[in-house]
Amino acid sequence: MPELRKDTILGRWVIISTERSKRPHDFVTEKLVANGKFCPFCNGAEDSTPPEIWAIRDPNTAPNTPGWQVRVVANKYPALRIEGEFNRTGVGMYDMMNGIGAHEVIIETPNHEATIGTMSVDEVDRILLAYKVRMLDLLGDRRFQYILIFRNRGSAAGATLEHPHSQLIALPIVPKSVTEEIAGANTYYDFRERCVFCDIVRQELSDKVRLILETEHFISFEPFASRFPYETWIIPKRHYSSYEHIENNVQRDLALIIRDTVNRINTVLDYPPYNWILHTAPAHQTEMYQYHWHFEIMPKLTQVAGFEWGSGFYINPTPPEQAAADLRLENM
Amino acid sequence: MPELRKDTILGRWVIISTERSKRPHDFVTEKLVANGKFCPFCNGAEDSTPPEIWAIRDPNTAPNTPGWQVRVVANKYPALRIEGEFNRTGVGMYDMMNGIGAHEVIIETPNHEATIGTMSVDEVDRILLAYKVRMLDLLGDRRFQYILIFRNRGSAAGATLEHPHSQLIALPIVPKSVTEEIAGANTYYDFRERCVFCDIVRQELSDKVRLILETEHFISFEPFASRFPYETWIIPKRHYSSYEHIENNVQRDLALIIRDTVNRINTVLDYPPYNWILHTAPAHQTEMYQYHWHFEIMPKLTQVAGFEWGSGFYINPTPPEQAAADLRLENM
């Protein structure tokens, strides 16, 4: 059973893998499964993953056979385990709990070589539907406090498989970054009685210098205090705190802006490795007046992250106004 | 002039470079200056750096000529500028200040191929003396709120030059990670009326399972909630909040444990890229009862950092007890 351990100073929880733990020689052997090698996520390889939890399929096709468009399976090497009861204990002065949770993989397409930037809007829309359906299902389990959805693209961004996929981790705690975001949003709300994210949307639509794209329901933009070159956020213009309540027409508009924004990033930065993370409200909340869900996309262009995650201090060599102009294709 | 911009939600400050800003094609051309190429930090190349600020030199040698053992110079491409007055302004709803600060390079040795793990204790002691001397000097400038000292080793850890060196950044703000550490330490102190770091030292000396080395004044160990495989802390056993007050005999003992601990990391992990960061109290503080300076060393073994700095959520595949046993050379 993996362990969740709490950093006594910072209050941050960390998952420590206790099974299959990595030793010095394991770190050099990690390789990305590239084109041409066997891929467990491809069409026809359905029996090389755990059984499917949910899928969008052609009529009259059986689970775990070809004929799917999006397929959700348990992660074969989960960071957390779904079985068991929640149990918190002390270890000397420290605190831990057993690693209860869910770890799923959303296989986004049967096409190994697809990229988000060149998919149809329908294809991206199906991925977003999978996010929503799996969140709604897992939120029924009262042990889970947060559903974290992320996508690693490229080995430098931590992907171990090339086939397009997202991951979902259901956690028995709320990650510290989410708690901090909510605390910061609360402070702003206390002062101004407005949602800070709604104010950011208004500011960016007015300034326009950091804006990339605008659709009916969304904007994509470079944040004023971007930590990383070409860091990009996609945020709904209307106030929503929880992603899983997204309406079908809004989801389709999100698919459009994600597709077009990622396509810009791929064009300008030549298919960089990147991570995207869905920031959404914790589980079991009614609509929160001060929080606002959004996607953060972080291209991984520099190697300085090591120092920066250690110090919490960021040096960004590309002003976001310059990055936004590049992504608006003004200088091509 | 670089800009310091504040993240309105999280309260985190980011340095945005406005001169020499990087565009898409700049990110692929970064290369480490390797052995055999011209190195501006080597003996005899003194005129290819800005003039020296401080050095340990052979008697009767002139500044900016050979004959030095440790040499401190301004960073040729500084993230912050030393000239100018402090100026905070609003930009719409956002906040910024001009990028006042110092950015220095501590060239640790004239020997390009030296490594900390194989230096003599005297050599490491001189580097630590340079840290102290430069901190004491810069702390005389009341504009600076924090002196951040770090060391990037290997291109995957963000080093752009191979020659052994550390960096120092004097900041007009306290980095968020330091503020958070102090806030966490305050919470613990309020509850237990003891320094959390002192308690950690006692716990690790008692448990021994995460301990690597112990000297007269220090321990090196793997933290209970390590974020990264083989993350290693070096901490004084006695309570001190500010590094710059270190006594000479304690500094020499620190040189010994740093040298031996880094040597273990290099041996077990085959000279991994790593970052080390000196965590010390903010400037202009009297001795703080709840804070305790220490070094954090983070080998960069995995590529998952992208997701992890984005979410604040860490998955560590190597239990710290296993890592400590490896670094105690128990399994070799």
Write a concise synopsis of the structure shown.
Two copies of one chain form a homodimer. Chain A is 25% helix and 24% strand.
Task: Give your account of this protein's structure.
The structure is a homodimer of 332-residue chains. Chain A is of the alpha+beta class. Chain A folds into 2 domains: 3-146, HIT-like (HIT family, subunit A, 2-Layer Sandwich), CATH 3.30.428; 177-327, HIT family, subunit A. Chain A contains 6 helices and 15 strands. Chain A has helices at residues 121-138, 176-192, 196-207, 248-269, 305-311, 320-327, and strands at 3-6, 13-16, 52-57, 68-74, 88-91, 94-98, 102-107, 146-153, 165-171, 211-214, 218-221, 232-236, 274-279, 294-299, 314-316. Chain A has a 10-stranded antiparallel β-sheet with strand order 3-4-7-9-8-13-14-12-11-10, with helices on both faces. In chain A, strands 2-1-6-5 form a 4-stranded antiparallel β-sheet, with no helix packed on it. In chain A, a hairpin with a 2-residue loop joins strand 5 (88-91) and strand 6. In chain A, helix 1 (121-138) packs across helix 4 (248-269). Strand 2 of chain A pairs parallel with strand 15 of chain B.
Topology:
Two copies of one chain form a homodimer.
Chain A: E1 3-6, E2 13-16, E3 52-57, E4 68-74, E5 88-91, E6 94-98, E7 102-107, H1 121-138, E8 146-153, E9 165-171, H2 176-192, H3 196-207, E10 211-214, E11 218-221, E12 232-236, H4 248-269, E13 274-279, E14 294-299, H5 305-311, E15 314-316, H6 320-327
Antiparallel strand pairs in A: 1-2, 1-6, 3-4, 4-7, 5-6, 7-9, 8-9, 8-13, 10-11, 11-12, 12-14, 13-14
Helix pairs in contact in A: 1-4
